[in-house]
Amino acid sequence: MDKEIVVAVLTFLSSLVWPAVFIWLVIRFRPQVAQLLNRLSTVKVAGSEFAFQQAAVNAAPANPEAKVEISQIEPGGFFTAEGIRNIVSQSGLLPAGESAVAAMLLFDNVNQHTWLVASPSKVVIVLDDEETRARNQLVQVVMEKNQVLPLKLSSRDGAGLVSFGSDPTRWYYSLSLFPTRESLASRIKSLLQVSAETGTATDRPRD
Fold first, then answer.
1. 156 C-beta neighbours (distance < 10 Å), count
2. Coil vs helix vs strand at 94
3. φ, ψ for residue 171 (rounded to 5)?
4. Disulfide check for 136: which of 18, 38, 62, 93 has CB 3.0–4.6 Å away?
5. What pLDDT does 129 receive?
6. pTM above 0.85, yes or no
7. H or E element, residue 124
8. What is the dihedral of CA 176, 164, 119, 62, to 10 degrees?
9. Rounded alpha-carbon distances, angstroms, from residue 143 to 117, 119, 132, 147
10. Mean pLDDT of each 10-residue bin along the chain, 207 residues long
């Protein structure tokens, strides 16, 4: 009887060993695990796959002097459309005398926002997430306006994908914002037109 109890206890303890080792490894190498996850283009949660936009390899250098008002930060930590425009305007990457005059939200999930921001002559891709905010490096790509078209559209991981002109980099866009490829193409063309007129664009797409 005592032998059976000992065996049962040892079996129970052995069943705890590997979970304990796994937890220790996660805690011990937490920075490395976080870095690995950030490099993945997709993550899986409970069997579902969600798009995760990687930052551009050649993202624009951080501007330590860029400032936004507290009112330009949403409760979830993301910048508002006005905050995004201010970041682009203060980036030092626009021609002298230009500022961001139009912005559209391209990709929206709980972890990331991707924006297209336009000045009279440039279009800027901005990635707003915890990592880019920590590095103060939200501006990813700056394009001449005449380099934006044509668009190349596809889909993956439950989201749309778009690349601009001859640049092969693909950027996620939310199907909840743009359920059809035509709606996205129309919205981008509208952004280019409004910025050319130095008007003010609607921050989020309208139906």
1. 13
2. coil
3. -120, 135
4. 62
5. 94
6. no
7. strand 122-128
8. 90
9. 10, 10, 19, 6
10. 56 58 58 47 43 71 62 85 94 94 95 96 96 90 94 91 93 96 96 72 45
130-135: long-range contacts at Cβ-Cβ below 8 A with a sequence spacing of 24 or more?
130/77, 131/38, 131/55, 132/55, 132/59, 133/77, 135/62
Residue ranges per structural domain of the chain: 2-39, 70-196
Quick check: helix, strand or coil at residue 169?
A: coil
- At residue 175, the pLDDT reads 96
Number of residues in the chain: 207
For the record, the structure tokens of 174 come out as 């939310």
* CATH T-level fold of 70-196: PH-domain like (2.30.29)
Strand order in 102-108's β-sheet?
102-108, 113-118, 122-128, 139-144
